[in-house]
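ARCHIVE CARD
CATEGORY: sequence design from structure
SOURCE FIELD: tokenized fold
FIELD CONTENT:
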């Protein structure tokens, strides 16, 4: 049966990537890996699909609405005593914790400093910078429960942005234990729902102020979220306090203001006094992180966070501005059956990092990213043996080299092709050059230091060294 073209379109929320897009993606990935490894984190890998229970054990079956899940083939089901369900991973912290509990990761010396990079999947409404198949890069620092460890991961996240020359970012930090202390009289389910609403309200208001939501006023958004919070509590007092705190942001001095607002809740005041926020900011300042603030709208909607949480926004991305999020989760590993183990980490959206880096590309040497080859070899008359030897020598030297595969009949046609693919150099060889064991190196005028049209006769080894020094 013949299918209509619409039947084989790519699924919504996914992408096909052209070679130039892939070059940019691989470049950004390599820069991130380099930064992670400079901080002595080592790469790990977990499966793209996991048992659904890894994620539903904490969130219930409702999580299925946001995930891609499936049952294994019937042959595998027959081998099992219970019904199995798998899912495509929606994030990478839970798989890393599973690896720590069930694998050899826990045998490494503490702290374990692991990083990962790979695709994740969520059923979400596609938007610029938000896909159903998306790529995540992140780290987990397992075994250390100190402010210095919290500051280490925040500093690392900012270093990734600095190394990608993304400079319009801000770091927002909070301590979720302060909110937990304020809501201590309520059960965990109520706390988690309230913090989820606080986090969502803070994010929505921030985006509204960037002009993302045009058909609603800030007052209407306030009332909408206030009504939802009132449903959770028996009186309005705690809601009033929550809304008075959400808008507080600034340096360490704002902590005194927060204590005054919570003065009727001594446990919450104590939580501010014992919070590690002051120490974390001290370490950040020592590490050269300048653009960090305390922001009480940051509550991180995931309910496994226990202490310091943070987000990094890039304002130029507007509605997709959150580029990084993370924090401390000291109970998650034990909830998966392991021993009590403190941990902290973050995840970064690779897709958004690439978008944010797009403007910064103008400031960097992008010539390597804009072309697929460094060299095109042109034979004036066919000589397969010499052509092959030249090609092998150049490729062994690390030069991205290619030859004519189309059977072009003239040097002009070959040079036109070299111009189209944007190679910076061509090597031209005819009978005279072959007889003298020389080549003609032609500058194609691509590089900033180019001398367009310049042709110099030299040995192949000299040509290779010249190309290596330029690319």
């Amino acid at each position: 049966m013949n299918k209509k073209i619409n039947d084989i379109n790519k699924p919504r929320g996914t992408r096909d990537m052209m070679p130039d897009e892939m070059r940019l993606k691989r470049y950004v990935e390599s820069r991130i890996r380099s930064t992670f490894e400079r901080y002595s984190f080592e790469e790990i890998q977990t499966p793209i699909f996991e048992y659904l229970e890894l994620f539903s054990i904490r969130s219930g079956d409702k999580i299925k609405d946001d995930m891609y899940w499936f049952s294994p083939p019937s042959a595998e089901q027959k081998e099992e005593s219970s019904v199995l369900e798998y899912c495509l991973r929606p994030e990478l912290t839970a798989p890393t914790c599973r690896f720590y509990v069930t694998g050899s990761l826990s045998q490494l010396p503490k702290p374990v400093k692991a990083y990962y990079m790979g695709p994740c999947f969520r059923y979400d409404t596609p938007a610029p910078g938000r896909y159903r198949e998306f790529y995540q890069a992140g780290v987990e620092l397992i075994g250390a429960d100190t402010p210095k460890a919290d500051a280490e991961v925040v500093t690392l996240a900012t270093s990734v942005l600095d190394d990608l020359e993304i400079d319009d970012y801000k770091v927002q930090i909070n301590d979720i234990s302060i909110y937990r202390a304020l809501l201590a009289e309520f059960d965990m389910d109520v706390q988690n729902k309230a913090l989820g609403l606080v986090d969502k309200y803070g994010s929505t208001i921030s985006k509204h102020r960037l002009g993302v939501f045009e058909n609603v006023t800030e007052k209407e958004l306030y009332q909408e979220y206030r009504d939802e919070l009132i449903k959770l509590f028996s009186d309005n007092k705690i809601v009033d306090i929550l809304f008075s705190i959400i808008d507080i942001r600034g340096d360490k001095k704002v902590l005194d203001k927060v204590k005054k607002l919570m003065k009727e809740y001594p446990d919450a005041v104590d939580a501010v006094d014992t919070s590690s926020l002051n120490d974390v900011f001290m370490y950040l300042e020592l590490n050269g992180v300048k653009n960090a603030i305390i922001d009480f709208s940051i509550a991180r909607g995931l309910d496994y966070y226990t202490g310091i949480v943070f987000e990094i926004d890039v304002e130029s991305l507007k509605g997709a501005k959150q580029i990084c999020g993370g924090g401390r989760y000291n109970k998650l590993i034990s909830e998966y059956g392991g021993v009590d183990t403190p941990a902290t980490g973050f995840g970064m959206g690779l897709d958004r990092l690439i978008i944010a880096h797009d403007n910064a590309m103008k400031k960097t040497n992008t010539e390597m990213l804009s072309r697929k080859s460094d060299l095109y070899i042109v034979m004036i008359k066919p000589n397969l043996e010499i052509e092959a030897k030249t090609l092998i020598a150049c490729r062994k030297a690390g030069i991205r080299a290619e030859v004519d595969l189309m059977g072009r009949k003239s040097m002009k046609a070959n040079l036109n092709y070299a111009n189209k693919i944007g190679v910076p150099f061509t090597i031209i060889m005819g009978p005279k050059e072959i007889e003298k064991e020389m080549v003609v190196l032609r500058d194609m005028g691509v590089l900033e230091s180019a001398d367009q049209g310049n042709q110099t006769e030299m040995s192949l080894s000299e040509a290779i060294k010249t190309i290596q020094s330029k690319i």
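CARD ANNOTATION: The first helix runs from residue 19 to 38. The chain has two domains: 11-48+89-363, 375-470.
SHELF: design records, drawer C
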